[in-house]
Amino acid sequence: MQKKILITGSTDGIGAAAAKALVAMGHHILLHGRSQEKLKATVAELSAIPGSGSVEQYVADLSMIASTEQLANAIAQKHD
After folding, report:
1. pTM score, whole prediction
2. What is the dihedral of CA 36, 8, 41, 34, to 10 degrees?
């Protein structure tokens, strides 16, 4: 069963590793990062995985409340 999964900090380290594993299982991944360039590269890398699930990207600085609220609103507008 495909799930929608939000991964914060998904462009490096554990977040990137989790995103690769989950997208390879066919899940719909919502990637979060602070850098548009890193997100773009991560989306390209994940999309190249055979049989991968779909990927969306969201830019936000979670150290700022306003940016965190914008992220939450953007995701809520597109997903249940």
Report:
1. 0.89
2. 20
